[in-house]
């Protein structure tokens, strides 16, 4: 059973920078896992932010960036805004199957 | 613009089946795949399966293999997800997602399936 692990919760101050990570139980995450990142607010469908590690959608704010960091996929928010408070999910590809991380609840305080 | 419009909420009894539809517009349906993702109340996201709208190839999460079937009707640009032998732990919001080139870029609005006796 493949497990994708994210920090359960993180807190950041407005204007600050925070990095969320996404680890695989199978070992280091590489570009071949095609990491995707999503933001979800209560009562809403997930909103795609990043695909294939670091590519942004046309609607993704510039303060969001994706990368690989220390064997994990990473989502960095720079200059955090109050509206960034949400749940964030990563998604990794395992040769025909996708597995979501458990989500990170980001609090902006 | 890309739109995925799903069928309405369902209430089912344990042991029954449910079939959720997802009508796509705003892109060439057969150029992409559709994944199905669910979210139980207060829980995280769970990928269930994928279908290529081009050739009908499918992949399923091991957990759901044998109990879920995803299909498409290219004449109406509609994808379907059928889940059988429902239990209370299948109560969730089910989403269809446009899934192309490792990019899940468009989500349906979600369909709440409630399993209750």
Care to describe what's here?
Chain A is mainly beta and 109 residues long. In chain A, the strands form 2 sheets. In chain A, strands 2, 4, 5, 6, 9, 10 and 11 form a 7-stranded mixed sheet that branches. Chain A has a 4-stranded antiparallel sheet with strand order 1-3-8-7, with no helix packed on it. Chain A contains no helices and 11 strands. The model of chain A has no long low-confidence stretch (mean pLDDT 98). Chain B has 117 residues and is an all-beta fold. In chain B, strands 2, 4, 5, 6, 9, 10 and 11 form a 7-stranded mixed sheet that branches. The radius of gyration of chain B is 13 Å and the shape is globular. The model of chain B has no long low-confidence stretch (mean pLDDT 97). The interface between A and B is medium-sized, with 23 and 22 residues.
Provide the structure class of chain B. Answer: mainly beta
Q: Give the distance, in angstroms, between the N- and C-terminal Cα atoms of chain B.
A: 40 Å
| Strand content bin of chain B | over 45%
Helix content of chain A: under 10%
Helical run tally of chain B? 0
The ordered string of helix (H) and strand (E) elements of chain A is EEEEEEEEEEE
Order of helices and strands of chain B: EEEEEEEEEEE
β-sheet strand percentage of chain A: over 45%
- The averaged pLDDT of chain A comes out at 98
Instruction: Count helical runs of chain A.
Output: 0
Low-confidence stretches of chain A: none
Number of strands of chain B: 11
Class by helix and strand content of chain A? Answer: mainly beta
**Tally of DSSP β-strands of chain A:** 11
């Amino acid at each position: 059973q493949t497990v994708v692990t994210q920090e359960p919760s993180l807190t950041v101050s407005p204007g600050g920078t925070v990095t969320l990570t996404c680890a695989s139980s199978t070992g280091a995450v590489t570009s071949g896992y095609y990491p995707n990142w999503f933001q979800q607010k209560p009562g809403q469908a997930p909103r795609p932010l990043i695909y294939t590690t670091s590519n942004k959608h046309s609607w993704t704010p510039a303060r969001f960036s994706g990368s690989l960091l220390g064997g994990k996929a990473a989502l960095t928010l720079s200059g955090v805004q109050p509206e960034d408070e949400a749940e964030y999910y990563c998604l990794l590809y395992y040769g025909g199957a996708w597995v979501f991380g458990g989500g990170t609840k980001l609090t902006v305080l | 613009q890309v739109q995925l419009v799903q069928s309405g909420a369902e209430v089912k009894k344990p042991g029954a089946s449910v079939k959720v539809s997802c009508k796509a517009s705003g892109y060439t349906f057969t150029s992409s795949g559709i994944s199905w993702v669910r979210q139980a109340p207060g829980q995280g996201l769970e990928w269930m399966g994928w279908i290529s709208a081009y050739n009908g190839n499918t992949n399923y999460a091991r957990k759901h293999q044998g109990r879920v079937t995803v299909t498409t009707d290219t004449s109406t640009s509609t994808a379907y997800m059928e889940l059988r032998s429902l239990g209370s732990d299948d109560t969730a919001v089910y989403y269809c997602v446009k899934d192309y080139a490792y990019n899940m870029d468009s989500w349906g609005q979600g369909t709440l399936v409630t399993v209750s006796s």
